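Subject: Sanity check before I submit

Could someone independently write out the structure tokens for this chain? I want to compare against mine line by line before I put it in a report. The sequence has 124 residues.
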Amino acid sequence: QVQLVESGGGLVQAGGSLRLSCAASGGTFSSYVMGWFRQAPGKEREFVAAISWSGSSARYAGSLKGRFTISRDNAKNTVYLQMSSLKPEDTAVYYCAADSVRAVSSRPSEYDYWGQGTQVTVSS
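---
Independent answer below. Compare away.
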């Protein structure tokens, strides 16, 4: 059983940056594909980014590529999401997730473990 704990969310002005972290425990972190998703009020959970177990491959939602960067540190059992040029529409609860199948997927249904989420609010 993998436990995931997100941190780093908060309130930021439009144009600002935040770095989210997700610390994993209870499993072999380096064997999991890790993903970030987000959910805004009244909307479905949407894919943000995912990274392969080795960190050599990453995938992004098309609208976010260039502003968001996913990375991981397997020695620290942590995955990061660097967010820049933030917009009010980026406001959401951000979740990290772990996928044991080793496919860098954008589908929430393919992820086995989820964190509780961290709130990101971008003011205009």
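---
OP: Matches mine. For the report I'm noting this point. The CA atoms of residues 81 and 116 lie 16 Å apart.
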